[in-house]
Amino acid sequence: MKPITALSVASEVYPLIKTGGLADVTGALPGALAAHQVTLLTLIPGYPAVLKAIDKAEPVHHFADLLGGPARLLAARKGELQLLVLDAPHLYDRPGNPYIGPDGNDWPDNAQRFAALARVGAELGQGLLPGFVPELIHAHDWQAGLTAAYLRYSDRPGPATVFTVHNLAFQGQFPHELLPALGLPPNSFTMDGVEYYGAIGFLKAGLQLSDRITTVSPSYALEIQAQDAGMGLDGLLRQRSHHLSGILNGIDEAVWDPATDTRIPAPYSTRKLHARALNKAALREHFGLRSETDRLVLGVISRLSWQKGLDMLLETMPVLLSEGIQLALLGTGDAELETAFRQVAQSHPGQIGVAIGYDENLAHLIQAGADALLVPSRFEPCGLTQLCALRYGTVPVVARVGGLSDSIIDANEMAIAAGVATGVQFAPVTADRLAAALVRAHALYCDRPVWKTLQRNGMRADVSWRRPAEHYAQLYRALLNARNPHLAM
C-alpha cells in the first residue's frame, strides 16, 4: 500500500481551538489515518489560543502581504498533530470566539480571514514549501471552501481535493464586490464557480469545485439532496451526487473512556456498571436534583438553538415533569432559550437543573451520571454527544435524522428481542413525538434488565475512528487512482 501525503485545511482543531464537532473530527482524523499510511498535516489559523498551545513553532515561510498585512507560516506540533499555523495577526489576533466578535456579530472581515486560510492551503498544494507537496487536500466547511476555487482558477497544477460538509446550514456568503480583494478572477463569478445567488459562496465553491464531497453521515448525505434539507444547495448536490458520500464520524476513545476518565468521580466499565451510581449522585448534587434513586435523570449537552430542537423540550416539559423525570442540562446559545430554561429550573428546583455555558468537565459528568441523553435535533449532520453517550452507557433518546439515525438502534420490540437495541428514536421531529419518546424511554428505564442491556449494548458499540478512517483512506486512494490511473495504489 503506497503512502499518501495530504493536507487538511480547517478553521478549528481539537485540542487547540474548538467551538463544535468540526474540531473533534479534524483533531482525531490525522492520527486515525496514520494506520492506513496516510500522513495528514493540518493548516489552521494562528488564533491566540493556538499560538499559545503549540510546541516548538518554526517559521517556514513569510508573506509580505496576505490579504491586508504581513504573515508567516509556522511548522509546529501539538501532541501527535503535525501543524502548519498561519500566523497573520491582522486577521487572527483577536480574543474569544474565532468567528464572532465581542458584540455578538460575525467579524466584519471574515471573508478575508478565511479566504486567506484557503489561499495558503491552495499554495501549499502547489508546492509552496520545498519538500512538502501534498497529493490531496482535505478542506472542511465553508471556512476552507475557497481552497478548491484558488486551485481551479490557478494556471499551475494542483492536488486532488476533498471537501467535507459538517453542517450545510453555515454557508459563508459574502458580497460579490469582494471578489478582487480576495484574489479571485472575474471568470470565477459564475454559476459553475463561486457565485451563489449574487454573492460569493464559500461553501458553494467547495461543493462545486472539489473533486469529491463528503458529509459526516450517510443519512445526512441523502437528506441534503432533498429540497427541505438542502438549504438552497440541494440542486447542486443532486447534480454532484456521484461525487458525494457520507462517512459517519467517530470519537476519540482515549478522551471518552469511562474506565479511565479522570474527570468523573467513579470510573466504570460494562463489568462494573454499578459504579455509575456514584456519578449519578455527584451529578444530582451538582445540579441540585433530589436524591431519589428510582428517578430517571435525563441529560442534555447541546447548543441551545432551533436546529437542536431544544424549544421542543420546553414544550414537552409538562410531560417530563409528570413522568417524574429529572433534567440536567448544559448548554448555551439563543438568549430566549437560555432565559426560558433558567426560568423552568427556578420554577422546579430539585427536578430541573440548568447550567448555561460550556464546561468540558461537566459534560463528562453528565455522560457518566445521567441515565439517558436527549438529542432532539431537527437536523443533525452527525452528532457526537450520542456517540459519547453510547460509550458511557447513557441511553440516547434521539430524533431519527442524519447521523442520529445512523448511529442509534431503536429499542423496538424486535431490536430488543434480537439483543441489538441501543437507544430510543422518534420521528417525525415534533413536540408530540418527543413527548412520546420520553414516556417510552421512562418505561424502558423502569424495566431494569432491558435498560442494562441497552447500556451494555451501547458501551460495546464501535464508536471509534477505525471504520471512518478506513473509509476516508479508501476515498483518498480511489480519487488519486482516478486522477493517475498509471500510478494505481
Q: In what range is the share of β-strand residues? A: 15-25%
The CATH topology of the largest domain corresponds to Rossmann fold
Text of the CATH class of the largest domain: Alpha Beta
Helix content: 25-40%
Helix vs. strand class: alpha/beta
Pathway: Glycan biosynthesis; glycogen biosynthesis
Family: Belongs to the glycosyltransferase 1 family. Bacterial/plant glycogen synthase subfamily.
Function: Synthesizes alpha-1,4-glucan chains using ADP-glucose.
GO biological process, one term: glycogen biosynthetic process
Could you characterize the architecture of this molecule?
By secondary structure, this protein is of the alpha/beta class. It folds into 2 domains: 4-250 and 466-487, Glycogen Phosphorylase B (Rossmann fold), CATH 3.40.50; 270-460, Rossmann fold, CATH 3.40.50. It has 19 helices and 18 strands. The chain has a 9-stranded mixed sheet, sandwiched between helices. The chain has a 6-stranded parallel sheet with strand order 15-14-13-16-17-18, with helices on both faces. Strand 4 and strand 5 (81-87) form a beta hairpin. The relative contact order is 0.10.
